């Protein structure tokens, strides 16, 4: 069987495996059946070995001696059924005894059944005399019957014995054949186990074969996919190659066309070449002619260079003349010139004025949402402004203040004050317009003059804005703020100090081409409560004692223990200004929330040498931002000791300045022995050399445009008029020739 299964594997593994399984199952059933002993034989064996044959209990009346059921026995043909009724007493016991005897007869050799003596008739005495003969006859017939039955039984017993012997012989045959079959079964089982092992081995082999086969199939499939891919790539290559080929064919076609064209154009080029060669010959002839003129031109160029050098020298001389004339003009304008500048009305002014007028409410100029109503704001602006007029629209030199008041008699009195200065700037004037007027003055210091520009006016009138500018001032609240950008178009609020410094550096740069080399250095001081503080220093304010020293020989003013910083560029100066501003003492007053309660003095010293002309010069530019000039009761400082002291010191130094200017004026008018009280304040003593007749001085009078400040403005204008009318002498240039 194993052999046939293996053959089947070769033809179809899966089908064969199933059939093998089915066959194995059939074998198993056969084996199981073989293991079962034959039922009939077992029954016989059991009956033989375990118990003697007995009649079945289920058939008490049966004459079947082998007890195999109720049907007719194979062994006995049994006595025919009794046709006559038996005596009740005998029939019962006889039948019972007969059965019992029959049963015994199966296990013991048959005996001749003892014939029992007939039972004594019980009712003979009582029987009637007519019936006794009949009973005897019946009794005899019964006994005969019994005898017949006994005889039949004996015959049956003999027959049964014979049959039993036969059966036993059969049984031993059957046992023999059973043993033979058992041996066969054992052999069959052994064979089956062997076949099963073979089957398992074959099944393992089959599994291995199947796995290998699956592996081979998957490898073949991968191979197939790879081949497919390669085929696709080859197809793609082929397509590209075909496209390339097409293109190449097109190229070849167009190249052929080009070659044909080239051949045509070559012909025309050859013709052109001939023409060009003829032209070249003509140009060569022209070139030869030009070479001849080149030598003439070189001579002319040399002459032109000489002429340029002459013109440059003339320009330098012209520059010197221009400087002389410029300074003459400046001198003719007067030594102390006064510019008046009225600042515009600020929104904060309107708010303050409205607040004061409305008795402490901002609602008047707001539209309810907090933002100002433009029309209302314009009206309030008009209302807040003092009646100031600028009648001179040509030269911008006049300013008129008007005021109406009630006289003692109740009549309206109209007052008007007219002032004339060197220049009056209206509120809309820009920083650039203002600087244009002083740029010439700032430039003078590069010519060796001492220049002093100071801003005078009440607190909040715009002094710092004019001198330092809006952006510098506003950004200077942080000491570390560094201004690195030069003044550009965007920096429209840059003030006079950064603009003047930039101008000086620009002029110095321009003059470099004329042989001038400049060295500059700067210092920035503050005078607060008659104490000098170094705004560029590192030490704490009011701690170091700085002394002012004047050198009568050189006319140079120095201050001890202050930082004098060499300046390389205007940008660096602006950085210094920002640092200095952060250190300025700013205290709050009622007049201006950012009021500067000190004078600040920026000094730029410039020394120049001209290697070409052998000249040297030394000038200085002092730019002074004075502290507010308001009167004590207006400043709101009366109740504060510290503020009071500040205001007194400010007023003292400002009146000292007025005294010095007045004394200088008197001296200029001929009182040569007039004492000039420079020492009355630190400010006048520091500016001594810049205020004396040896310098060019300009005062900016800054005015507030507000009606509420009209009186302060009038006082300032009167002071400025005095200064403007003062002649302090002719400014002298500090130049010399380098030996
Ligand atoms: N010409 C102007 N244009 C616009 N705003 C100006 C002008 N002049 C001054 N201001 C503004 O007015 C305010 C007061 O000006 P500023 O601080 O320069 O006054 P000040 O006279 O220097 O005051 P203080 O004496 O307290 O230093 C500032 O907010 C400033 O920006």
Automatic annotation (TrEMBL):
Taxonomy of the source species: Eukaryota, Fungi, Dikarya, Basidiomycota, Agaricomycotina
Sequence ranges of Polar residues compositional bias: 48-67, 89-106, 123-134
Organism: Pycnoporus cinnabarinus (Cinnabar-red polypore)
CDD domains per the UniProt record, alphabetical: KISc_C_terminal (cd01366)
Start and end residues of each stretch annotated as Disordered: 1-138
This protein's name: Kinesin-like protein
Coiled-coil stretches: 157-251, 294-328
Composition bias type Low complexity, residue spans: 1-15
PROSITE patterns associated with the record: KINESIN_MOTOR_1, KINESIN_MOTOR_2
Binding site for ATP: 457-464
KW Hydrolase (keyword) present: no
A GO MF term: ATP binding
Compositional bias ranges of the Pro residues kind: 111-120
């Amino acid at each position: 069987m194993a052999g046939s299964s293996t053959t089947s594997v070769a033809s179809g593994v899966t089908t064969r495996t199933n059939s093998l399984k089915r066959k194995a199952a059939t074998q198993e059933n056969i084996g199981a059946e073989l293991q079962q002993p034959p039922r009939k034989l077992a029954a016989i064996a059991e009956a033989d070995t375990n118990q003697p044959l007995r009649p079945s209990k289920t058939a008490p009346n049966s004459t079947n001696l082998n007890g195999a059921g109720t049907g007719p026995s194979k062994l006995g043909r049994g006595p025919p059924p009794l046709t006559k009724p038996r005596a009740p007493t005998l029939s019962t016991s006889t039948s019972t005894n007969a059965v019992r005897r029959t049963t015994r007869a199966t296990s013991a050799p048959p005996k001749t059944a003892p014939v029992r003596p007939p039972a004594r008739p019980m009712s003979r005495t009582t029987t009637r005399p007519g019936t006794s003969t009949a009973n005897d006859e019946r009794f005899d017939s019964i006994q005969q019957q019994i005898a017949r039955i006994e005889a039949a039984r004996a015959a049956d017993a003999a027959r049964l014995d014979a049959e039993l012997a036969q059966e036993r012989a059969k049984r031993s045959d059957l046992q023999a054949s059973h043993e033979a079959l058992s041996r066969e079964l054992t052999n069959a089982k052994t064979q089956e186990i062997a076949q099963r092992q073979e089957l398992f081995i074959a099944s393992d082999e089959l599994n291995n074969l199947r796995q290998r086969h699956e592996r081979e199939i998957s490898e073949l499939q991968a191979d197939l996919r790879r081949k497919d891919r390669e085929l696709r790539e080859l197809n793609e290559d082929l397509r590209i190659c075909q496209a390339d080929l097409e293109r190449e064919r097109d190229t070849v076609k167009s190249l052929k066309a080009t070659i044909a064209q080239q051949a045509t154009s070559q012909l025309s080029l050859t013709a052109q070449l001939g023409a060009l060669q003829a032209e070249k010959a003509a140009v060569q002839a022209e070139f030869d002619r030009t070479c001849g003129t080149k030598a003439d031109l070189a001579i002319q160029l040399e002459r032109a260079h000489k002429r340029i050098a002459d013109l440059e020298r003339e320009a330098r001389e012209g520059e010197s003349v221009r400087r002389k004339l410029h300074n003459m003009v400046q001198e003719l304008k007067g030594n102390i010139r006064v510019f008046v500048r009225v600042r515009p009305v600020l929104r904060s002014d309107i708010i303050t004025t409205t607040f004061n007028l409305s008795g402490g409410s901002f609602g008047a100029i707001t539209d309810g949402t907090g933002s100002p109503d433009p029309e209302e704001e314009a009206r309030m602006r008009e209302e807040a402004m003092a009646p100031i007029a600028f009648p001179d629209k040509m030269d911008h030199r006049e300013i008129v203040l008007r005021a109406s008041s009630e006289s003692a008699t109740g009549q309206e009195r109209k007052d008007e004050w007219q002032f004339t200065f060197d220049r009056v700037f209206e509120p809309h004037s820009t920083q650039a317009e203002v600087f244009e007027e002083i740029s010439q003055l700032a430039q003078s210091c590069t010519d060796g003059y001492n220049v002093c520009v100071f801003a005078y006016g009440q607190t909040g009138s715009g002094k710092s804005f004019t001198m330092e500018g809006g952006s510098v001032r506003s950004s200077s609240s942080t000491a570390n703020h560094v201004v690195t950008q030069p003044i550009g178009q965007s920096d429209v609020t840059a003030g006079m100090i950064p603009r003047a410094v930039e101008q000086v550096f620009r002029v110095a740069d321009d003059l470099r081409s004329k042989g001038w080399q400049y060295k500059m250095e700067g210092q920035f001081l503050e005078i607060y409560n008659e104490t000098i503080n170094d705004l560029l220093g590192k030490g704490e304010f009011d701690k170091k004692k700085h002394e002012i020293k004047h050198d009568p020989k050189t006319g140079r003013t120095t201050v001890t223990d202050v930082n004098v910083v060499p300046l390389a560029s205007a940008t660096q100066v602006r950085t210094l200004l920002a640092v200095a501003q952060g250190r300025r003492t700013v205290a709050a007053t009622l007049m201006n929330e950012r009021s500067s309660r000190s004078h600040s003095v920026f000094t730029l010293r410039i020394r120049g040498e001209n290697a070409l002309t052998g000249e040297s010069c030394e000038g200085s530019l002092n730019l002074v931002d004075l502290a507010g000039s308001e009167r004590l009761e207006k400043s709101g400082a009366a109740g504060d000791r510290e503020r009071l002291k500040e205001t007194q010191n400010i007023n003292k130094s400002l009146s000292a300045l007025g005294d010095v200017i007045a004394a200088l004026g008197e001296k200029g008018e001929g009182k040569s022995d007039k004492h000039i009280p420079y020492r009355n304040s630190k400010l006048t003593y520091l500016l001594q050399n810049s205020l004396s007749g040896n310098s060019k001085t300009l005062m900016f009078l800054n005015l507030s445009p507000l009606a509420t400040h009209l009186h302060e403005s009038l006082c300032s204008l009167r002071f400025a008029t005095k200064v403007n009318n003062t002649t302090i002498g002719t400014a002298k240039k500090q130049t010399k020739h380098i030996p």
